[in-house]
## 1
Amino acid sequence: MNTRHHEERLTDIARLIRYYILKATTHAGSGHPTSSLSATELMTALVFGGIFRYDPNNPDHPNNDRIIFSKGHASPLYYAIWAAAGRLSEEDILTYRQFGSSLEGHPTPAFRYVDAATGSLGQGLSIGVGMAINAKYLDKLPYRTYVLLGDSEMAEGSQWEAIQIAAHYKLDNLIGILDVNRLGQRGETMYGHDLEAYGKRIRSFGWKTLLVDGHSISEVRAALMEIDERSDRPIMIIAKTIKGKGVSFVEDQNGFHGKALSEEDLDKALKALGNVDTSLRGEIKAPEDIRPPSMESGSAGRIDYTGEESVPTRNAYGNALNRIYARFPRIVSIDGEVSNSTRAAYFKKEHSERFFEMYIAEQNMAGVALGLSCRGKIPFASSFAAFLSRACDQIRMSQYSDADIKFVGSHGGVSIGQDGPSQMGLEDLAFFRTLFGSIVLYPCDAVSTERLVEEAAAYRGIAYIRTTRMATPILYDADESFPIGGSKVLKQSDSDAATVIAAGVTVHEALEAWQTLQESGVSIRVIDLYSVKPVDVDTLKRAAAETDHLITVEDHSAQGGLADAVREALTLEAVRLHALAVRKKPKSGKPRELLEFEEISGKAIVEKVKELVDG
Amino acid sequence: MNTRHHEERLTDIARLIRYYILKATTHAGSGHPTSSLSATELMTALVFGGIFRYDPNNPDHPNNDRIIFSKGHASPLYYAIWAAAGRLSEEDILTYRQFGSSLEGHPTPAFRYVDAATGSLGQGLSIGVGMAINAKYLDKLPYRTYVLLGDSEMAEGSQWEAIQIAAHYKLDNLIGILDVNRLGQRGETMYGHDLEAYGKRIRSFGWKTLLVDGHSISEVRAALMEIDERSDRPIMIIAKTIKGKGVSFVEDQNGFHGKALSEEDLDKALKALGNVDTSLRGEIKAPEDIRPPSMESGSAGRIDYTGEESVPTRNAYGNALNRIYARFPRIVSIDGEVSNSTRAAYFKKEHSERFFEMYIAEQNMAGVALGLSCRGKIPFASSFAAFLSRACDQIRMSQYSDADIKFVGSHGGVSIGQDGPSQMGLEDLAFFRTLFGSIVLYPCDAVSTERLVEEAAAYRGIAYIRTTRMATPILYDADESFPIGGSKVLKQSDSDAATVIAAGVTVHEALEAWQTLQESGVSIRVIDLYSVKPVDVDTLKRAAAETDHLITVEDHSAQGGLADAVREALTLEAVRLHALAVRKKPKSGKPRELLEFEEISGKAIVEKVKELVDG
């Protein structure tokens, strides 16, 4: 087929795609048709123009090119593409946004050709960075990652994090396609149709840019074909487009964002589209059938802290990555410029090819983790617990992608000391508890940390591990097991006056309190609730039944953490619970001073127990 | 004093400042001296070189220039500056990082010359944007805002959000001073000492840049004095510096980030510094004594929804801003490109000079809110509840600045419908509950929304208001009051079988359930828990005492929201609580379908009550 004939065919396919976009959204009564119409030629040229390489019969083929719709609200376009490819019928398309349909309002992996859920703007490029890093440095495959971007979402700083990192890692296998349709949700964007405004900014960060008429299939194809040269630079195709293109009465007009056409207007629009050949099908070029080298997995090494008394759990994290890597060769470690603090540096030292510095850009780090997860890796993404909160929206979104990501937050709590509150994670347990299917782990010693890092790696889903800055005594034998959802009863007797439930740093405070109280003839039960989610309901119920008072003590906000988790577990048990937690705005000071100030120290526990037992 | 003499004096002051930096950190045994030393000439030239204008006797003077240390870990430098200004003694300086000292590890407003707490990198420029917007567009004063930036933190996307917005708003009264010392925490930054790498990027975004030798006081002064021309462009002074400058054995070397010198090394360093005249004092130029026009406050208008049956609470939010503005003329509305959805657009229409579009850049929006709050405004920052999670780190940090900010998250819950989970706020109540002194409000109708927006404006601190997308029936009379920490008992009798505690959209589900149950002869108590934090403990206790079953129902994650808040309030009451919440990963669908799917509908409540009453 000659080029002109080919491009006429692509034009017909684009018409068919517009047909599907309009029908889907009008039938749903909602959606973003104008945002989908502006990118129609871009995607048509890419997917059906012989550039995109994908085997629809094998969505998981490791060498498939990837597409991410960072502008997730253009989902009607994405589904229309697959209908034009013959993978969805018109009937399927008309289930758009219906309850139970895989064609959701914004793309989710419910639809087999979606890798990662999008819809919260400004996140797709980071996901693409993760997939491109995987291709270039891990799987070492030639597949490309294409990210469809909207212009409004370029205001999101996360995009510029991705842009910087992509250039730094020379990701010439990452292609952004920027749909500059001028109009945001409530008006014109900052730069309107000034393509060069985007061009000069993106070029200044080291990308190659190509400016095109986004509705000229031949220009778009030509730009995409220019990408064949390897240049060590990521590529941004910057396309001038018209929002609502193809429906003249909404083209380039404000006020039509997120509005489906009425039935009447749909009729008008379809008539104006002209002849739509619904039997038309686009061809997608197949990928090269190359696969990455298979990874043999072996066994994890043995835990050995012989001769050591106190070790920071953050050190144990770094040690654990090295120890378990043979068992989980899909592990990748990424960190936000603090690997010497989080101890991800231990792993970087032994397996530098499996470690990627993410610099001070946590949002991008979370997106990269998702991209790596989509490509079958097990990312361990670490920073200070406090700074993971920079990525809450990305982490929130990753729960809708069936992501398999392990987040590790070091420097939990006030007990970090003199650096003060800006560095203290105090809300992290609360946030990670809210995520569907997440597990939240807060080990108190090196041995349990090592075991739980291994459990987290084996767990399929989002895991959060909180580590501690200071050294804490080793409590457990190297061969003890720490199942998710379990706990450890460290002290118990037949006459426990109260139960103290702690995790992480406060376990040691509780043990100190136990000692002090023993000397007064008072026994307490001490539970190490290392699994904050899910919690060990049975052990907690037993403690509630067998002891008169329950006390939680946590180096965390009073809301959302241990106390809330225990109350949730015992919600049908009608128990009283006394919660010691960080209730006062913390400040600089020595760790011990701060634990006392916040009344979560051994001393505070003793006082609370005495108050309850005596009163 | 001639220039050369003046600059020699500044050199002596810089020496004194180095003396304080080294002594403070060694005495504390921790801190970031090398990061402070690299910016010493920069700050000396600025503060004492006749450029910075500030009255130390009046830190709140409205026309003072402002300084923000975005690289908050250079706090030793900040305190040393004020010691050199005669506002701290050496004895004060030696309390650095001690518990109870106002000189914390990272700056907080505990120290009178700090406006906003910093220390989580990449946030200072946004705070500066807020202060500069205030100067240029609100107070209309000539003061300037200077932000000291580190090079590593330029990887943070939030900085690029600020850079874009600053250029867009022509903030030529905002001066960034970028300390390019080449070394991050664990190694070299992406661009090392390549000043032009920063220069071209920042210029591409529309700033003016000046490249200087950061240790040449004369070059730095000359650059700062060039700023006198008004250019409609923000200015970035990009300075080549040496990390650890002034202590030869650590200068420009990796491995010394965040390390205080030992006593022995301190001796060496101080000797090498040479003669330090600790009696030396730097002069700070006074500001022009101009004040903004005083704002007269009047009364809020009357609430009037006569003739309306159902109104979305998000509409009531927009109406409320207009209604209460006369009472709170310090209100400023900022929104993240969704004002037509959040209805901040209603206020923009009436008071366009008090509204600032923040585009799709929520991190920057939260920082701007903090900057505005520091300058005495009452910012209402709105977006979808889900997208406020983009700014969790900034919001977390604002709690350490005694910030007075109102965050408004629309589109809470699964009940937004077909757009699907990317747009659904499901974790927002949990996050805002964790903040010190925060109030969390979730009104169910237009009247209560109007009242609570007013209460939030009057409250001094961080407030979060969650609004709903769909229209909901008006339940309350226009003259009812809704105190913070209160609740409304909508239905009660002497024979309530159970209490249903709801908020927002689920209040209406609960009322529907009440009706259905009445028809079966079962009475339930219905509580509108519009104040999720603090909660109405007395009403909840009474309900626990007087009814056999407590049920919470929320369009929110099962963790961290209503259920946890009620359990926290009743933690000493030994009650059972049944929690209906969003427990299944949501999807697209009609609002009604999703409420049923998540079992938080009227029907689900009826079933739960029957199960408890019968079983």
## 2
Amino acid sequence: MSAKEFDELFNKVCNWGRWGTDDVRGTLNFITPAHVRTAASLVHSGRSVSLEIPINKLAGPDNPRPPSHYMVQTYDAPNRLGQPQFAKDYLAWEFHGDCHTHIDALCHVAYKGKLYNGRPSNAVTSQGASIMDITAYAHGIVGRGVLLDIPRLRRVKWLEPGEAVTREELETAEKAQGVRLAEGDIFLFRTGHHRRRLELGPWNNGYNGEGRAGLDTSSILMLHERKIGAFLPDGDGEVVPSNVEGVAYPIHALQIAAMGMACCDSLQFEELVNVCELERRWEFMVVVAPLRLPGGTGSPFNPIAIF
Amino acid sequence: MSAKEFDELFNKVCNWGRWGTDDVRGTLNFITPAHVRTAASLVHSGRSVSLEIPINKLAGPDNPRPPSHYMVQTYDAPNRLGQPQFAKDYLAWEFHGDCHTHIDALCHVAYKGKLYNGRPSNAVTSQGASIMDITAYAHGIVGRGVLLDIPRLRRVKWLEPGEAVTREELETAEKAQGVRLAEGDIFLFRTGHHRRRLELGPWNNGYNGEGRAGLDTSSILMLHERKIGAFLPDGDGEVVPSNVEGVAYPIHALQIAAMGMACCDSLQFEELVNVCELERRWEFMVVVAPLRLPGGTGSPFNPIAIF
Amino acid sequence: MSAKEFDELFNKVCNWGRWGTDDVRGTLNFITPAHVRTAASLVHSGRSVSLEIPINKLAGPDNPRPPSHYMVQTYDAPNRLGQPQFAKDYLAWEFHGDCHTHIDALCHVAYKGKLYNGRPSNAVTSQGASIMDITAYAHGIVGRGVLLDIPRLRRVKWLEPGEAVTREELETAEKAQGVRLAEGDIFLFRTGHHRRRLELGPWNNGYNGEGRAGLDTSSILMLHERKIGAFLPDGDGEVVPSNVEGVAYPIHALQIAAMGMACCDSLQFEELVNVCELERRWEFMVVVAPLRLPGGTGSPFNPIAIF
Amino acid sequence: MSAKEFDELFNKVCNWGRWGTDDVRGTLNFITPAHVRTAASLVHSGRSVSLEIPINKLAGPDNPRPPSHYMVQTYDAPNRLGQPQFAKDYLAWEFHGDCHTHIDALCHVAYKGKLYNGRPSNAVTSQGASIMDITAYAHGIVGRGVLLDIPRLRRVKWLEPGEAVTREELETAEKAQGVRLAEGDIFLFRTGHHRRRLELGPWNNGYNGEGRAGLDTSSILMLHERKIGAFLPDGDGEVVPSNVEGVAYPIHALQIAAMGMACCDSLQFEELVNVCELERRWEFMVVVAPLRLPGGTGSPFNPIAIF
């Protein structure tokens, strides 16, 4: 795709102004109270499943700056106040990263100097984001989650780095699973990225490495038309290297900067797919609860699917 | 209460062995699939409400070690890969603290050298907790939340530091609100701690300060009899100073070490009470999703109530 | 002093271009090999004295963001490689602060958008300082240290917040101590700031607190004329509140932005003064060794005086 | 060397009790005022040279937990107090590491449960080291530095991983360079470790990697007999894998736990050797100034050689 075609696509899916010039919730506007009720009505077995990768403290090719986790206090030193005693810890983290489950705030991505809704990127300073920080999602995202499991469709364990999933394939997956992405849905997109990591070990999935599998840009039009509320992929939705001339991460630019979509990165669906297969269904209630971090460009989180 | 009476109470509410010697889920065992279904059936209006205090980066008497939040990257330096550009941040945190919403792992509290289920406290080392870390709650806690709003009952804005809420008063609050704490419930206990902070400013709520309001030890018997699944207070449930001889934080010792109860600290219900009053109900679905932090003694989190 | 007079003073002491347009060493250019030899020739008794405040991990009015210091590993967990075992720690730090001994890089201060030598302040980005970072002092600062002890002159324990030391008083102190600040010297300036802290406890020494004692702007002309190489105060040299209209920290603006002076903050001379009195001399060898932190705006350090 | 022979060597070089049961300075007791004077008398040209590796923020095989360095504040946001403006940064660090120049406290190493002077290793808890922390070196280490440059002797660029330098070779190097290690000296030991890293790139120098060059255990007897005051190597003095049965890091055990020697790790002498060759001398004044970190097991630092 040429740079010019990309800009045309950007404009086509652009939601700037759609919900007012001050809007900071973007595609979450598609999720109505009725959608939340519908989501809750999907709860039958009471199973809940985490979509988070356990926090990975081990350096590796996709984890060059591993979280720092230290004990602040264990039971090895007397407590000044007597009984009981407490153990405490400390966690320090660059949580945007290729093996850390996190959600992106709308201020996380700028395309040609503009954030979502056309706001200037210099609203993010050394003091944090003054607009569209992660607190825009403070009260959580609750809705119907729909998993499209591409490796299942292809009968492979995972997609290989560089592979792209087109709109057509997403639609085929819908049919194979008997689901259909609809307005206000939370779209869980599985390439098997984390499964590959579990079985083959970590790899450098960036531009100076082997890359990753993700969405073809054609899929973005579908997400736009279907009025998807939020996007939860394993991997981060991107194909690396991208097939867009001069745009390294086109999916982020389209989803976040153009569409204002609530996007997450680096989830894992390995526990989820077992439950889906067991219950023979790929829709469920999803609850996403980012930390209320003022000025934050995102948040680590543990998204929960409830069946 | 004397030290001896406390130990008797400890033994009375002790759940060690109740769910097997290897159990690490404690009172979460009270929450069954039926409870999750019931919780989901409470979703009508689709409103979701955060119970988290926005992350407080400002030092103060109850925040002596404020979180460190820095930008890793803003839009002020060229991106080596061209468009789009990304903003990223870093968050470092001693999340156990008196104004940070967090959940405690069962390994967080030891009474006389023992964790819940009689496990030795030296299972927590400089390398983290080897048992009963926060990953025991990896798949989240989902259930019916019931708020008992004590300031509402007393017709005050908040309880003053040092005030204790007895079993009798909890039961009176149940009647006044038309709810009843039942097996497997998630108990939200409001003293108005955070409301006081919002209106009067932060105060030192520890033993070298003004203290805090919380549960009388008599209430613990009630929670035990009712088979509460999880405990979510503003403040942390403790009365400071405590009325137990030689035990500084008796509620933590009883709830966590004796009962194995999933306990959280420092929530805020100021947004929640508005919705409760509006909907005239004090029960709702609750979703708690701690980070999957291996070895962690707890986790920051954003608990969500869904109406 | 009016804003206009301040700008005239700024221009008067301005060293921009003095050592070339690319210079990043500023007043360190005054320290020649002969000065280093002279400094070494002052070593007689072999006593060495630290000028650093022990790292203060306790929050307080002048320490709102205390350093984080945690054990990475103690001897409580078996070492995978057997004997010997190792204990390790972690230190995290906003080291510019009012009770942390540190040195400022020349990029640390901008006056009206300009750094020393007229360089643009936007050379400091979220990625660090691209010019005049602390690595400009990588090979250390070695020279003759001269202490002017103002409380000694005034026969008080310390100067009170808000008090200013004029050029005249500095010259009187020189005479009283029998020393004279000369070209290339390292000037140690004592107000007794840390002594006050030790005896009265910490106080808020900023604009929203009680303030601090420091140099009157008249003293800057003297430092300029005398061609001082580096400045090491207890406190940070500033009088708070300042007596310059509209300039909150005039000494930093003059010393660092105008003069390009190697400046340090928050040293302590309480051990030093004892040695000075014992040896009846106020000159000695000084070695300053900032960490080689690429992009850094300064460094924590432990300056050493050798007698 | 067998485990039994190692324990015999340990006992032979053991300084426990030599300077009293409460001693925490170990071999620094060898450095007298006369040694400091002698060191200062070596200052002729006034050149000062850093022995620190610039802080390395890039993850790699010998840097699995790179330092976190972020801007706290740049010039992109208005300063509440007007002019001047300030830029500040934050540095977080596990400073014991194989490419970070640091000094070890005596509490850093335990052999069979004992620290130097026979003190129990459980004196180091989650609250830090209660004895023999790095503040024992608060006032710095000043003395005569002597560099033995083994690659120079062997006419190679560096020693290869696994190579060991015997006592005999050290003595040959002394003769080749016309120096002799004497009582109270600071011994700089060069294997070319950092030169290799600069030219070939980083490598895993641990037991699960390629290893490193260092001292043969025979050399330790020489250091003991010569009464060396402090040890500053590139690398860390260890041969990996070690040739001692069952002891992974024998040099640390001998130097720190047995001898109480002030030891540093991961220096770089690439700038130093140029000055040595230029001045045709391998002795100079050295100043080591660890941060005064209470409870710390070591400190990052920038050791300075002065000619």
